[in-house]
Design a protein that fits this description.
426 residues, mainly alpha, two-stranded antiparallel ribbon, 67% helix, 1% strand
Length: 426
Amino acid sequence: MNATPAMAMNPSRMRAAMRQRGRLEQLLIIAALALLVPAMTKALVWAGEAGMLPVKPRDYTLLTLAGAGLMVMLNRPSFCPPAFLMLLVPLARVLDVAFLQRFSVTDLGDHSVVVMTLISNFLVTFTAVLLLSVESWRRVALWVAVVTALVSAGCVYYEWLGFRSFTRIPGRMSGFPADPNDPPIIIALMLAVVFSLNPRFWRNVMLIALVTPAIALTLSRSGMAVYACLLLCYFAANLRRHFMGMLLITAVSIPLAISGVAILSQTSAKQGVMIDKNATDRLKAIFELDFERIKSPERGKDLQDGWEAVGKKPVFGHGSGAGTSLWKPHNQVVALWIDIGVFGVLFFVLGLLVLTFRSFMLKLSGFYCLVPLWLFVPCSQILVESPHYWFTAAVCCNLVYTRRFRLVLSAPARKAFPPQTPLPQS
């Protein structure tokens, strides 16, 4: 007769084990938020420069990295190898900067500062992918995405209200990153994760309503365009199921958008008694859909210079850092080509193509993540060193690759079979 396991006979022990597992999941989420939200929103960099941290940003990063790694190990990790394979691109850039040093970057004072910055970004990125290697990875990713989007939008509102100035471009709000083009990238990537993991339509609409004005305040042309494409895909996918709700959203959003444009025109175009002509022209071009004025001639010239640099060393590139300091093409493919050559570009694009193919094979699973992953490539040159970009790519990987691998320290117990009696001999 088979013996009944002790855990099945003791409900109190089962409840205690479930409570312990729930506490470990909560600690994992807290560790993920403590590490990723300050890193993705760049609040950690700003707090360190402003002297508002009791410890150095480096020490805070190392402490939270250790805590997050420990929590992952305590939550029975199971790994998705394709998500880690995509990190070979940022790893190649780190190794190139640290060991080969084919290009010396002195924008921050010394090349070693750039090396430590890239190593720190890679460690955070690796841990972000590692945090998705647990059974409750969907819950972890959803918490990180929602909080990151809200913090990014909140710091933009905080600046718009006049409490503190973060931006380096007058007339445009930026929040912690100081670059007004960064918040739309962060928010769009995080919303793509939320759309992929959270099926509750109206909760997602509430989140959209909270963060959309922040993107408008940045006056980012490329950010607004990608964000609009993401929302268009999301609403088109839910149109049949929530048709009446869409009509209600349209009826409410039109007057709000008109009043928002009026407020934005006055607050962004004026700096004291001076009128910022750049912000005024940018607003008119965006809201009048004047595509000729939306195009940036400066970016066109930078992109042309980038392609000329690619032609000089097309195979191995000029060295990591050249595509973001000496040349600034505002295009991830061109910047990566300048840094590590054609092989890095092929691996980067091939990874996105494989994710896209798997998504279409699985009935568009993870499709929302692919929208900003692809559309921001021709708009930004620092995606490969941004943890939020690889975090979104890792979520997409976990959605399209469902097989996972677990490290086991001991072999599972084999099932015991009853002894067989020998056959009678004649």
